[in-house]
Design brief:
Layout (H helix, E strand, L loop, with lengths): L1 H27 L1 H4 L2 E2 L2 E2 H48 L1
Antiparallel strand pairs: 1-2
Helix pairs in contact: 1-3
Length: 90
């Protein structure tokens, strides 16, 4: 349970940094954010092109790690049940 909470917090913080980072970058580095990339300013490139794949990557990592955590929990519970069964047979 604690590992799932840590994963959730890490993914949420990553998302919040990305979400709040763009306005902060515009405020603190307006010249950099006005740089043109592929015909877009860097602000619009990050917002319109890079942001959504970044969110998909966060989602992918969260789902994959959640599934792995669930599997490890199931394995741990099955081991405990096996140990209890061995104790009952003695």
């Amino acid at each position: 349970m604690a590992r799932q909470l840590k994963l959730s917090i890490a993914c949420a913080l990553t998302f919040l940094i990305a979400l709040l980072g763009l306005p902060l970058a515009n405020y603190f580095a307006p010249d950099l954010m006005a740089t043109r990339i592929f015909g877009f300013t860097l602000t619009w490139f990050v917002l319109g092109v890079a942001f959504f794949p970044f969110v998909w990557i966060i989602s992918y990592v969260f789902i994959r790690r959640s599934i792995a955590l669930e599997r490890s929990e199931v394995t741990e519970v099955e081991r405990e049940k096996g140990r209890e069964g061995e104790r009952g047979n003695l």
